């Protein structure tokens, strides 16, 4: 039976990315060696990193003066590296959920953290608006897509301070004005690659300004200077990332990804709103995520939750159980998810409705 992969991350990747990576694991560039057996300093591997960096810059229209890094440690290590490198006195954070809170927690060890707004009281069912960002902060940190709660900032905020963003779960799903940011980071395991590599886009002249000593591995300067080769980078995930970047370009880039994401999410939200059995969890329609679509059973049908999960699972839906802090269902619709998978889920919802 065909599986429809709605996993929240690690998650669906384009089939050809998996096939090309599998091929290179068997034989890298006809070398007779596996991608898993070569040195990161092998002469054939440097072009992989160089092309991945170049495609990152091209696809996101990254201006001159920025570096693209491939590191380890996940987005979670960036929660700490960001304040280590950029927080001299004070930073502002927008509290939009679990990941934003974790980022704030790390920053508090380095200086004053101003929570400019929070939707915690409403279980993060919307993105706060109308807040003020103090003009004297070192940066303003946002989480552009809240993977757990299914809310998303669909445009770069208009503020007069440098931005830092966790884009783990919506990178390459829309155009971004990178010039507004000093740093954009994320775990690769949604729209880019298998788990194991972290991408960081960093503005070169924003680093090296804090007065504290930064351990070598946590200093962005180290990785900028060494082109992500200070220590052994995650070779296989970087290779897979390159295949995804090539795929992205061939498909038409981030504008096309945005068009597809909107199409998929419009279809699914329309069904959630129409179907009497279900209810979307995000209260502000403009904040509904294109990537993680969260819904629960309508109050009168609460007792059907386990039945629907079983029904949908039997029809090939994978990974639609909601995160424990929201409950219900979450259909993650990342770049590689075909529209047919969304239609298959909608068919399930309609068939289940007819049974009740
Ligand atoms: N930020 C966001 C928005 C996420 O969705 C996740 C993981 N799902 C993280 C951070 C943490 O990423 P990692 O596991 O790579 O540390």
TrEMBL record:
Any Gene Ontology biological process: pyridoxine biosynthetic process
Cofactor note: Binds 1 pyridoxal phosphate per subunit.
The protein's required cofactors: pyridoxal 5'-phosphate
Pathway(s) where this gene product acts: Cofactor biosynthesis; pyridoxine 5'-phosphate biosynthesis; pyridoxine 5'-phosphate from D-erythrose 4-phosphate: step 3/5; Amino-acid biosynthesis; L-serine biosynthesis; L-serine from 3-phospho-D-glycerate: step 2/3
One Pfam short name: Aminotran_5
UniProt keyword list: Amino-acid biosynthesis, Aminotransferase, Cytoplasm, Pyridoxal phosphate, Pyridoxine biosynthesis, Serine biosynthesis, Transferase
Residues annotated for L-glutamate binding in this entry: 41
Gene3D superfamilies in alphabetical order: Aspartate Aminotransferase, domain 1, Type I PLP-dependent aspartate aminotransferase-like (Major domain)
Catalytic activity, reaction form: O-phospho-L-serine + 2-oxoglutarate = 3-phosphooxypyruvate + L-glutamate; 4-(phosphooxy)-L-threonine + 2-oxoglutarate = (R)-3-hydroxy-2-oxo-4-phosphooxybutanoate + L-glutamate
Domain Aminotransferase class V: 5-345
EC number: 2.6.1.52
InterPro entries: Aminotrans_V_dom (IPR000192), Pser_aminoTfrase (IPR022278), PyrdxlP-dep_Trfase (IPR015424), PyrdxlP-dep_Trfase_major (IPR015421), PyrdxlP-dep_Trfase_small (IPR015422)
GO molecular function, one term: pyridoxal phosphate binding
Localization in the cell: Cytoplasm
Primary location recorded for the protein, binned into one broad class: cytoplasm
Highest taxon in the source lineage: Bacteria
Stated role: Catalyzes the reversible conversion of 3-phosphohydroxypyruvate to phosphoserine and of 3-hydroxy-2-oxo-4-phosphonooxybutanoate to phosphohydroxythreonine.
UniProt subunit comment: Homodimer.
NCBIfam families: PRK05355.1, serC_1
Protein name: Phosphoserine aminotransferase
